[in-house]
Specification:
The protein is 27% helix and 0% strand. Helix 1 runs antiparallel to helix 2.
Length: 85
């Protein structure tokens, strides 16, 4: 918009940036790979020999649990070569 003096009007806009997690990316390395699948399997069978921090954004069906749905999702992404989507 141009004001009466012919100068451009500057408007300030405030916005927030939301960090979008890659669904299925358990270890948060910005890709879905076999490490994510292995971590998912360890969680499912309760043999995690390490502390595993799971990003809340990886809960595929929003049931606040990590289960077979998430593992299958990860394996499907890997098998289709869609590791960064």
């Amino acid at each position: 918009m141009i004001d009466a003096s012919g100068l451009s009007e500057v408007k300030n806009i405030t916005f927030s940036v939301i960090d979008v997690l890659l669904k299925g990316d358990i270890d948060n390395n910005n890709k879905i790979d076999l490490k994510d699948a292995i971590l998912a399997m360890k969680v499912l069978v309760s043999i995690a020999d390490e502390t595993i921090i799971i990003n809340s954004g990886t809960d595929i069906n929003f049931d606040n649990k990590y289960g077979f749905e998430e593992l299958i999702f990860i394996l499907q992404k890997i098998s289709k070569g869609m590791t960064n989507e």
